[in-house]
Structures are given as structure tokens and as C-alpha cells.
Amino acid sequence: MTESSKLIQYDDGYLNKTPIFQFVLLSCLFALWGAAASLNDILITQFKSVFTLSDFASALVQSAFYGGYFLISIPASVVIRKTTYKLAIMIGLIFYIGGCSLFFPASMMATYTMFLVAIFSIAIGLGFLETASNTYSTMLGPRKYATLRLNISQTFQPIGSASGILLGKYLVFQEGESLASQMAQMTPDQIHLFRLQMLQHTLEPYKIMICILVAIFILFLITKYPKCKVKEVANNQNTPKVTLGETLKYLSGNGLFKKGIVAQFLYVGMQVAVWSFTIRLALDLMPHINERMAADFMVISFVCFFVGKFIANFLMTKFSVNKVLLAYSIIGCILILYVAFIPNLTAIYAAVAISILLGPCWATIYAETLKSVEKKYTETAGAIIVMSIIGGAFMPAVQGFVSDMVGSMQFSFIVNFFCFAYIGWYFYYKMKLENKEG
To answer: Which tens digits make up the pLDDT trace of 86-115?
Structure first.
């Protein structure tokens, strides 16, 4: 075996080359959490009718999901630091499998709370997976291609998102009239039996997910992965460790970092809210279609999201990041106003088009926010930015509450206007700041 064919880990944790099978298997995890997140959009619509929920109550699906992400991100990072990326991934897969399995007793108990517990368990698993996989993807190869590897891995996520919507469309949603129309013609006893039957349909995609997850778990178990951990330099007195207290004090006094945290919080909340209620909006504005037909709008939304990433990447080679995201935000605000105030079918297509503008937001806000932090504080700062994903638990509930208060799902989209407006202001502020410094 020649020296070039050997897998070598450098002191900084990176490798001399990328182990292809291990990298592809790791990238498949990105599709798995994309599928889980998009299935929530199906569940919100299904549970709304089956449990006769308010829009606020139905949005608690996302609150349970992103709340789990928020709570587990720091513990997951501790596990990774003390053990290995592979072990954290396997723990995540176990929680993911357990959460999917909880759908079976939840469907038998027929209680909304039990379904929320199952979704929360899935989120804990995904928190481990995402915390480990994003960094691990960058480490599996030469340092100079780290960003490229992460971008390649991230292309699996919208594929998983579209797959999750298709599973929900064909396995959860059924042919015929919408659930609300069918139940309007039934007696109370018939409605009870019908609800139990509809809950059984929610099991179908999770049966498939369990099979896939078990197969992935076995592959990870038998596949040898490099540790990709940075080698610690012993007795280095010139680089004292920064304490958590010192880091938090620094970050709390960093105004630009705090503005970025708010922008990321609102972005994630807006994305989840728009996707959570797109199917509901289609059903409201097109009462002649059923849930299965309405799900097509979400499939198109994920395609738009995917395309939006590529358009933004191209534009960022021609213009500054701040200008591109400011333009995206302005167009986004206009589209959201159109969705909220134009009472015809074109509002649905405007809601779908918003996904084009969501594509570059997460990664760009993350990177730009981290730029404002001194290097010695970036590890903790990065974890805090990831924790801002809690916005996905908050903003859908706010939109659901507004919908219940005003009696209009369409008007409730106005909540997202304020999110996009702040993001636009954030990049305008950064653009002015950089121009001043220049």
C-alpha cells in the first residue's frame, strides 16, 4: 500500500483525503432530518382535522419539534467533545428510531399529547445527528475542501424534505374529499371511528422510516470512521482556555452578534411557519381540493428552496452577500404582503415562491454572525447560533394564534412580514457598517 493511499489524520483533525463511502453514508443523514421536518407539515394538517384543533394548537407540532432541538444541542456537543462523532450519530439514530416507534402507541391512545411526545423524541435524535453531522462533514477530508463537502452534504436535505412530503401525500393523506368535508356529513359515532382510522394512516410513513433508520444504524455500526478530533497540545502555557463565563460575557456585549442571533431566530421561525401553513392556505383558498392535492404545493416549495440556493450562490459571486440578502428580503416582504392581502388563488403561488428566497438565509446568517466574533469564542458562539433554531417552535405558534384571533389563515401570514423585514434591516445595517469601515 502506497503512502498516498493511506488515510492520514492531521493534527487539526482533517484528513489527507475523503473516504467516499463514509462521506456518502454521513450525507444520507441530512436527508433523514429533512424528511422528518417536512412530515411535520403533513401532521399539522392531519391533526388539525382529526383532533379538531385550533391553528395555535396544531402549530404545537413544530413547538415540540424545535423545542427538542433547542434543549439537546448543548448536551449533544458535550457528548461529541467527550467521545466521538460516530457515537453521537448512533445515539441520535436510536432516539430517532424510538420517536418513530412511539407513533404506534400514540395512534392506539389517540391523544394529541402522545403524538407530541413522539415528535419531541424524534427531535432529540435529530439534534444529535445535526450537531454531529454538520461539523463531521467538513472534517472528512482535506481542510481546503471543507466548505465544499458541507455544501455537498446539504444538497441531500431538500431531497429528504421532498421525499417526506411525498410519503405524507400518498400514505397519510387519502383520496376523496377533504377531511373537513367528509366529517361534516357524519354522525358523532361515525366521526370517532373515522378519526381512529385517519390516525392509523399517520403510521405508514414512519414504518418506512424505521426500516431505513435501522439499516442506516447497522451500516454505521459496522463501518469504521476516523475520529477527526483536533490533537491537544500538552503543556501549552501560551494559549489559556477561555471559560464559559468569559465567553458569555463577551458575547452578551457584542451588539452585532446579538443582532445576528435575532435574525437567525426570526428566519428559522419564518421558514417553519410558512411551510407549516402552506397546505392549510391551499385548502382554504381552494376548497374543492383535498389534502393530497394540496401537498403538491409543498413539493414545489422544496424545489423552489433548492433552486433559490443556487441562484443566491451565483449572485454572491457577482455582488456582496449583504446586497443579495437585502434584495431577497425586500422581495420576500412584497410576496408576504401579497399572500396576506390578495384574496385569490395566486396568493398560494406567492407563498410557494417565498421558498426561493429562504434558500440562502440560514447558512449566510450563520456565517455572517460568526464573523463578528473573535476566534477564541467561535465554538460557543456557533452553538448559540444553532440554538436560535428555537424560533421554529415560536413563530408558527404566533401565526396560528393570529389565525385563530382574526379567523383568517391567509391574513396570519403577515406575521412573517416582520421577520423578513428585520432580516432585511440586519443585512442593510451590515452593509452600511462595512461601507463605513471600508
So the answer is: 999 999 999 999 999 999 998 888 788 889
Residues of the chain with CATH 1.20.1250.20: 9-230, 244-432
pLDDT 10s digits, 252-281: 888 898 999 999 999 999 999 999 899 989
Q: Is the pLDDT of residue 1 over 70?
A: no
Q: Are 187 and 193 in contact (CB under 8 A)?
A: no
**Residue 426 pLDDT > 90:** yes
Distance, CA of 147 to CA of 363 (rounded, Å): 11
CB 85 within 8 A of CB 225: yes
**Residue in this structure with the C-alpha cell 424510538, named with its chain if needed:** 98
CATH number of 244-432: 1.20.1250.20
Q: How confident is the model at residue 196 (pLDDT cuts 50, 70, 90)?
A: confident
344-402 confidence digits (pLDDT tens) = 899 999 999 999 999 888 777 877 887 787 767 766 777 787 788 889 889 999 999 99
DSSP of 159-210: HHHHHHHHHIIIIIS-SSS-HHHHHTTS-HHHHHHHHHHHHHHTHHHHHHHH
Instruction: State how far the Cα of 140 lies from the Cα of 23, in Å rounded to an integer.
Output: 7
Q: Which of 323, 30, 272, 269 is nearest to 151 (CA)?
A: 30
Q: Tell whether the model's pLDDT for residue 2 goes beyond 70.
A: no
pTM of this prediction?
Answer: 0.81
Homologous superfamily (CATH) for 9-230: MFS general substrate transporter like domains (1.20.1250.20)
